[in-house]
Amino acid sequence: MRTPGFGEANLGALAGAVVGGIGGLFAIGIPRAVLERDPAAIFMTPLLNVICLVISWPVGWVLGGQVGPRLGMRFRSEKAEVAGGIFCGLLPVILIMLFGWYVTTH
Question: How many distinct structural domains can be found in the chain?
Answer without folding.
Answer: 1
